[in-house]
Design a protein that fits this description.
By secondary structure, this protein is α+β, with helices and mostly antiparallel strands. The protein is built from 10 helices and 22 strands. The strands form 5 sheets. Strands 2-17-21-20-19-18 form a 6-stranded antiparallel sheet, with no helix packed on it. Strands 3-12-15-14-13-16 form a 6-stranded antiparallel beta barrel. A hairpin with a 5-residue loop joins strand 18 and strand 19. The two termini are 75 Å apart. InterPro entries: MdtA-like_C, Peptidoglycan-bd-like, PGBD-like_sf, PGBDSf, UPF0194_transport. It holds the Pfam family PG_binding_1. This is Peptidoglycan-binding protein.
Length: 575
């Protein structure tokens, strides 16, 4: 080995040993140094600068951009005039739906979409009245078919409906064969009932069944009048002609007896009181009675007087007896006539009752009554049927939607499928953001609050809070989690938006009108006296308390006023 190489090796060994010793020495520490190294660093204050800026408080939520006002729709009833199986022959198409368009076809019949808030709920037939008809008429006028505003499905409205169907290539619903047959049957039933009534009425008018009773009543009335007239005449007469003749004869006999008595008495008186003899030369009259002499016997004359008196008494007695007989005969006759009147009245009442009962209970009259009821019933049935007979709109052929145009967003039935429940879901043409917030945050929200939505691209759009809580529930949407309330926002513009996009929405619940001094909420402490203060660092690790008044809080910061200025540093930790 050369000397030069040996020297180099020695030098390298020395350098290696020296390096190892230095390395070991750098890792060795004394106990004091080790304790000092492990001790905690001295605490320092953590501060934040007082800022002057506008403070805005927002409620942030995640939502989805969708078309607004989703509304599931279904048919109100059958399409077409029969209740046969309802099968879709043309399904609804997704996209724009305008008023008057055919939404779909069922069994080859159209289903029209019209604007209106009253749901279709019945068959609109001739004569139908109501708000749904008035709503239909307004829709027809908007579409240019013309229709009155009567609220009645009348001929003019039927013509307008027919034009709407024709324009779309369909025929308005006409009465079915079964309806026509039923209408003809009811019409013939009315005719038959009317003919029966006319026949029975004719029979009744002829009075063949009650004619004897009518005659009997007429006779009874005549008899009653005769009896009453006879009674009246009898009451006006004191005696009958026969009785008057008898009384006249009796009176004549009395007068004759009186004359005879007077003559006898005169003769007797003359006999008892003879006249003085006339002077000589006087001639006695030819009619002078024989003059009794003094010796004349007057017994005969007296007998004549007595007989005359007896005859007169007999004549008076006969007169009284005739008068009594006449009175008794009159009373008896009046009684008989009164009885005859009563009997005639009874006969008349009996005849009237018999005729009345005969009219009420007679078979012919009963037939007439029954025929009239049959006519009325047949007419009522025909009228009831005719009320809805004619061109009609089956309940399933029109769907009234609150707003049109709209969008068919979801189709629930395909061509060939049976139509039973929901057929589609329509939405408005505007977008909305659906989401939810915690119940505590929902208390801060009010409809109409300003908001913004932010896309994943960072682009933001202005929006407004449309609804909160139950009013923000969307039909068919999932229910929010427990304790959360649904929220609905409406973007101010739809340009660049796409349905189904996830967005972040911020609803502004409060904001200062101008820039204010703002500090972190952690910087504000409440002292024992209840006043809010902050600690301001005026020098390194030196602070002072400054009383402040707080305002709006947002995003961890709070508005403050007091002896502060922008740029001051307030202690948020480490005090």
């Amino acid at each position: 080995m050369r000397p030069r190489n040996l020297l180099a090796g020695v030098i390298a060994g020395v350098v290696l040993v020296a390096g190892a010793g230095w390395a070991v020495s750098t890792r060795l520490r004394s106990p004091a140094d080790e304790a000092a190294r492990r001790a905690a660093p001295r605490a320092s204050l953590i501060t934040a600068a007082v800022e002057r800026r506008k403070l805005v408080s927002t409620v942030v939520l995640s939502g989805t951009l969708e078309y607004g006002s989703p509304l599931p729709i279904s048919l109100a009833g059958v399409v077409g005039g029969t209740s046969e199986l309802q099968r879709a022959t043309r399904a609804p198409h997704r996209g724009r739906l305008k008023e008057g368009a055919v939404l779909m076809e069922v069994n080859g019949r159209p289903v029209f979409a019209l604007r209106g808030s009253v749901p279709m709920h019945r068959t609109i037939a001739p004569g139908t009245k109501g708000d749904d008809v008035r709503q239909l008429q307004r829709a027809l006028r908007r579409l240019g078919y013309g229709a009155p505003a009567t609220g009645v499905f009348d001929r003019a409205t039927i013509s307008a409906v027919t034009r709407m169907y024709t324009k779309k290539g369909y025929e308005a619903q006409q009465p079915t064969l079964l309806d026509r047959q039923q209408y003809d049957t009811l019409r013939k039933a009315v005719q038959t009932a009317q003919e029966t009534l006319a026949t029975e009425q004719q029979t009744l008018d002829q009075g063949r069944d009650v004619l004897p009773l009518k005659i009997k009543l007429t006779n009874a009335k005549v008899d009653l009048k005769s009896a009453e007239r006879a009674l009246k005449e009898a009451e006006s007469q004191e005696a009958t002609p026969e009785d008057e003749t008898k009384l006249a004869a009796a009176d004549a006999a009395v007068r004759a007896a009186e004359e005879k008595l007077a003559q006898a008495e005169q003769e007797l008186a003359a006999a008892r009181n003879p006249p003085t003899p006339p002077a000589s030369g006087a001639t006695p009259g030819p009619t002078a009675a024989p003059q009794p002499t003094t010796s004349t016997d007057t017994s005969l004359l007296e007998m004549r007087v007595e007989n005359a008196r007896a005859d007169l008494a007999a004549a008076h007695e006969a007169r009284d007896r005739a008068s009594e007989e006449a009175r008794q005969a009159r009373d008896k006759r009046l009684e008989e006539l009164r009885k005859a009147v009563r009997t005639a009245k009874e006969a008349k009442a009996t005849a009237e009752q018999a005729l009345r009962q005969a009219r009420q209970l007679s078979p012919t009259r009963l037939k007439v009554t029954g025929a009239r009821k049959d006519v009325a019933a047949a007419r009522a049935m025909l009228a009831e049927f005719a009320r809805t007979y004619g061109t009609s709109i089956p309940p399933g052929e029109v769907v009234f939607l609150p707003k049109l145009p709209a969008r068919v967003e979801k189709v629930s039935v395909k061509a060939g499928q049976q139509v039973q429940n929901e057929i589609a879901t329509v939405t408005g043409s505007t977008f909305m953001v659906t989401g939810s917030v915690e119940a505590t945050e929902s208390d801060l929200l009010r409809t109409g609050m300003e908001a913004s939505i932010e896309l994943d691209s960072g682009k933001t759009y202005k929006a407004a809070l449309t609804a909160v809580g139950d009013q923000a529930k969307v039909p068919g949407a999932e229910e929010p989690a427990n304790g959360a309330e649904p929220v609905l926002l409406t973007p101010a513009s739809t340009k660049g938006l796409k349905a189904g996009t996830a967005v972040t929405a911020r609803v502004t619940v409060g904001a200062t009108k101008s820039p204010v001094l703002v500090v972190p909420v952690a910087a504000v402490i409440t002292a024992a006296d209840g006043k809010a203060r902050v600690q301001v660092e005026y020098a390194a690790d030196k602070t002072k308390e400054v009383e402040v008044r707080t305002g709006l809080t947002a995003d961890g910061n709070v508005e403050v006023t007091g002896a502060l200025k922008e740029g001051d540093r307030v202690v948020v930790s480490g005090a």
